[in-house]
# Entry
Amino acid sequence: MNSAWVALSLSLKVAGWATAINLVLGVATGYFLARTRLPGRDLLDSLLTLPMVMPPTVLGYYLLVLTGRNSALGGWLHDSFGISLIFTWQGAVLASSVVAFPLVFKPARAAFEEVSRQLEQAGRVLGLSELSIFFRITLPLAWRGILAGLLLAFARALGEFGATLMIAGSIPGRTQTLSIAVYEAVQAGQDSTANLLVMITSLVCISVLLSASWLSRSHRRSQLP
Amino acid sequence: MIEVQLDKTLMSPQRCFRLQLDFTCTDKRLLVYGPSGSGKSLLLQLLGGLQTPDAGVIRLAGRTLFDAKRRINVPARQRRVAYLFQDYALFPHLTARQNIAFGLRRGLFNPGRNVRDSEVDVWLERFALNEAQHLYPHQLSGGQRQRTALARALIMRPAALLLDEPFSALDPTLREHMRQQLAELQSQLDIPMIIISHDPCDLEFFTAAVVHIEAGRLAGQSNLPI
# Structure
């Protein structure tokens, strides 16, 4: 019973961090891709979409090779900061963030592309700085598309299994998230634990969906036809 | 009042357009007249700082806004020109009141729905927008939208007023009314006003100096008889 709540809180923590990271990185990437005129931007877009189409285990393997202590990046992180991503919940956050990244930056790019440039110009002639224009015009107008992406990302991060297992493993209480715990419980023949975990997961997913539709409804009431 | 000496080439895969203008106007009202595609809107964007000329000089209301030789290019947000966009460019996520208060508030947050500001109240009163102040742009009528956009621009106490086809989005009866209102406003505000139009009726109505543009070139100019 208790271990189920530990797994739930770990899952929520990991998914929350992954969503927060994507709020910054995904939105920034989406904005960059929507505004840049670089010739290679569509190629870049495709490359960044790879985590969505690659099998999670393959992705996890890449991350393992990339951040393991024997790699340049992993060695540097360990030697300079004492950070090790392998078999830690931070590793699970990394896996979830990468997997969910395309779900945020793609809708964000589309949403930014729909914001009329003329509205930004209107802000400019009214004397606003570029930063103010972004936070007061561009972001509020693109927010709906971004929010949809973030909710999807949160749900995807919550259900992350393959890449997380590869990089963070399945240490009960430390890296065993809800979806991994379900697998472990079934493997061990603990049907009642599995049932409980599945119930919890389903409830969390339903409440995410409900809050998504509630958010978009209250949003619609306040603006736009 | 306005001195323009401009060269700007716009390149796109479909076409290449060159605007070359050289004129001076001493009147407070200038009507830039020409068919669509002649470069009038581009001229207005250059004046407002939304586009940068390749070469030349722009002086407006006693200030040098652009001078290629002296490397002066005042950014749009410091030009203090009011710009009325053809379709008004009201912020769809803000009410009429918030739209009008928009430029007064600096920083990263928009003014709230009930922002208190006596100047906003003055402009709402002046343009008969009191009833509509809490409506969003899509809920406003065409005339209300234009008045909101005007108030939003004029509340900043601009040094000049630029109007891009201000009547084209209005139906004919409203158009007549707005022409009247704009003429009145101009006499009260005492700032230079530059209007762009392709409608011959505007030529008849406005007592203004006229610059006639065709295909990016000056095709004629007439100043007001003094």
The longest helix of chain A spans residues 2-35.
